[in-house]
Amino acid sequence: xxxxxxxxxxxxxxxxxxxxxxxxxxxxxxxxxxxxxxxxxxxxxxxxxxxxxxxxxxxxxxxxxxxxxxxxxxxxxxxxxxxxxxxxxxxxxxxxxxxxxxxxxxxxxxxxxxxxxxxxxxxxxxxxxxxxxxxx
Length: 136
Known about the structure:
The chain is built from six helices and two strands. By secondary structure, the protein is mainly alpha-helical. Helix 2 packs across helix 4. The radius of gyration is 15 Å and the shape is globular.
């Protein structure tokens, strides 16, 4: 299933929604850092697990994270039009996390910005997981 172009979410607003999610996750990561008293290897792993659980749950059960809810966007499996399976949501979340971590360099930024020139408005994490983001 390929969604008509009119139903695909705006890349700019998708990035704003992603930034909302990033801020929420950074708050949790800050708390984890405080609790783990600077044990960066442990806190980094816990932060990754929290991010995967957050996105995996929300994207597979509701089709949207809290940042996406602001705009009413939904993640959908490109082939079926349904919400992604938990496995696809985890894959998409892991690539999202890598893009987020590498945004300080050009590699991660390209992953996020790819949706601006992609005909189906897919970021790299969408392409890897086989998902699209729609307005409903």
